[in-house]
TrEMBL record:
Species in which this protein is naturally found: Roseibium hamelinense
Official protein name in the record: HxlR family transcriptional regulator
InterPro entries given in the database record: WH-like_DNA-bd_sf, WH_DNA-bd_sf
Amino acid sequence: MDIATLVKLTSKAWSLKILALLHSGVPGRQAPLIAAAKASRSAFAASLLHLIDLGMLEKNPGHGHPLRPEFRLTDKGKVFAGLAYRILEAAPGDAASSVLKRSWTVPVLAVTGAPRRFTAIKTGLGVTDRALSKTLCVLEDQAWLRRDIDVAQRPPLPTYQAVNAGLKISEAIRLSF
């Protein structure tokens, strides 16, 4: 798995949750998945279609109704479902869940297992300055990322490193790479 695939996967809010639910044994029909995820139908449907486009989910042939199909994980989806389950397990709770639904949270945590500078993170992910800056602030507020400033450098250079639950998420991702 590469970081580009992780970025694509997390670009939809409910993708990780859907994969984790399927990994944990929730039936692949839309109603049980929506109920377990506590998601709105439109956002959930967009994430579901996104996972199908990425080749991680498929309609289960011969099961379900044409208007209410049943979905199952593909071989590729099974790998990512295990990862999604470990990520959500590393940071349980509603507050953590809302942070994990943000587009750049998981990719940023994936690359900050070791101290990284802003430009190194930006280059590695292909993220805009504004999106990365907002994500770093959210992760600092959540205490999942630590910002250290090296004042010996001119100008002083900040470095970012995952800590606490952010480090657990980073390690779960690293184990999958």
